[in-house]
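Task 17 of the worksheet. Students: predict the tertiary structure of the chain below and write it out as structure tokens. Keep your answer in the requested format; marks are given for formatting as well as content.
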Amino acid sequence: MVAMSSSAAALILSGCVATAQDVAIVQPGAPGEPAKTLSASEAAIIAQNSYSLDDVRFMQDMIPHHQQAVEMSALVSERTNNQNLVDIAGRIDASQADEIEFMRGWLSSRGEEVPSAHAHHGTHMSHEMMGMATPEQMAQLAASQGTDFDQLFLTLMVTHHEGAVTMVNDLLEQPGSAYDPVLFEFVNDIVNDQTAEIERMNDMLAGLSSDPRGGLVAGFRDAGEAISNLTLVASLPKPPGFFDPENPAGLPPLIEPKKDDAAADADTDEHMHHEGHGDHDHAAMEAEETAREDDQSNAETEWGARSPLLSFSNTDMAFSGDMMIVGNYHGFNIYSLSDDGMPNLISSVVCPGGQGDVSIVGDLLIMSVEQTRGRVDCGRQGIADEVSADRFRGLRIFDISDPRLPRQVGQVQTCRGSHTHSVVAGPTDDGKIIVYNSGTSSIREEEELAGCIGEVPGDDRTALFRIDVIEIPVADPSQSRIVESPTVFMDTESGQIAGLWQGGDHGEDTQRSSRTDHCHDITVFPEKQLAAGACSGNGVIFDISDPYKPTRIDAVLDQKFAYWHSATFNNDGTKVLFTDEWGGGSRPRCRASDPMDWGANAIYDIVDGKLEFRSYFKLPAPQTEQENCVAHNGSVVPVPGRDLFVQAWYQGGMSVIDFTDSANPKEIAYFDRGPIHEELLVLGGYWSTYWYAGKVYGTEIVRGLDVFSLNPSDDISANELAAAGLADQGELFNPQQQFVVTWPEGAPAVALSYVDQLARSEALSVSQINLLSEVIGTAQASLDADRGDRATASELRDLAADLNGSDLSGIDQQRLIALKESLEALSERL
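Model answer:
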């Protein structure tokens, strides 16, 4: 028992309250540091940890950011009569002014510094990162009027809003940020509101364009179309078995609205009422049902977030003679081409695994497979196990000697699957086909495929930073195998296999370029002993004089490229057109506000073995938020004397581009459809567009297959198109494989092509043009009549001798020399 002092007992008995004693309050320091003495008021302070320094900086930066939007909006009413723009500027002004007051109050109530709304120079982030307009851009905006003002305002404001979204995303990536529930709700409101406004403003920008491709009506089979200098001669839907009949457009799943309990009870009562009365008042029942359907149609439609996983997407094409094969994530379809180029379906082959890129060599078809659902037996059930002997990722080889019944006769399993491949050579003298394989996916478990090693620091056996060289014996494709895996990105000085771009951005206002650990496409040009690699973070050219050991000649970076995707040489092998698949092909990257040098083509000349940049080209027609669009696959259009390229832009349609002048590419023809759906971005559009035997063929991802003819115009003559139709492509076209295209010697259409080109550039006089056209026309008539014509032959030789190109340079001089040779060859035919 504890004894109590008499004084303490007296205090208790008297009812007095004890008070705290006045003692020192100590805060110990770290080990080895002295303690601090605190006052009572200091000791009572608890650190405010409901917000972070990152939260404070975000609010301090967002105030001047919002203020600039208010200042931009204040310019609108006096500079445009576009009521839609006036309305959106009014909403921006009101909402951002209110949010500025909220942010000022938030900072003030927490004792944090409240910056002036005009303190643009004191921000923690760069103006470029924040999407803010520069002083020069603000001055240009203030000086603009009418449509020029509308376009500039919307372009700057979209970038400004995107900067705000970036700021929020950066904040949420910081540990401990936005824990304050009020702040968290605020920043999410910023993202939701400004994302919606970005979409509205992009639609308005597209509507300001005079290009007929802007604002096309959406639809799966009935979308609006815009076409220039092309004719759509056939449009074939996908064959049965290669689309979901319940969802042919590949829309995401529709979420049925849930009924509340009261509605459910009412429906139950109503059902019982109707059951009790049999057929009584059947008309009333129908009227009530119609009313319910109307109510549902007027309700806001909700869509699921997940759409079909490319299960039936059309991909690449290959041609051999009168055969065309269209790859698909579900397998492939074989068509025969009639004399007029129209495809007729021969067979459909189901063998899932994606992405289904195809090449033809003789009676063999080679197909790329990358997805983890691919099976050795072409089964449709996929594979659930992480490791399985049934999984197939690599190159499949089919015997198509009987195109109605293709047989799988060989397989090559690879560590990263096969995204694309390139037929480099073959059959060689010893009956081998040599193929470069590009895998872009994850590395398989070594338990599943021996030798597949991931990225282990210091382990150079990794499957990264390589390409696969595969050998296919024609006599026995079952013995196909990887024979080399060269580390083509190695730093030749240090020996480091990861010797090229390591990934990331290149500084302010640049793209984040992917790391170079693979090539997406490698386009080979065997006759030139060259290959061009679009290798994720770099553009590369290789010496393939020894196809088993490709050697890097040069590699370039581009601060505007996110992902080097594909490469195409011109017919001389003196230029390379690279494409940038910014956004991976699934995002809208051709909106009016998107940079014209992002997601574009980059054109390089090859000078003394080095790649020298000349220009960018991007689809000039603005697309909507509902259209995935970026540079994708295409091919050379074989017009003598010119470098023409037909190209797919996914839902941006297709373009024909003249890049003869590398520094000044020009679009000369196009076709485009409206988006697949008016509200949703549904992955679609052209995967590839290729010229073959006088026609342009385009694989539409969800819609099917289109066939076009190119029409004469101011930019391409009937003679040039006739010459293109005579081009010898070797009756073979494979993606990522090019051959030198030739034309018949002494063909009048070829000579007239050069005449038309020299006339277009005004390198010949009108009298020369008329005389040349007349004499070549006479020669054509004699050839058509199968008769000799010595007089015309003599005239042709005289005209060739009189052509003097001493005052010409560049391409015109080359064309004049080619014209002289064509005239002399034509004279020999007479």
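Marker's comment: Residues 5-15, 261-299 have pLDDT under 50 and may be disordered. The CA atoms of residues 460 and 497 lie 7 Å apart.
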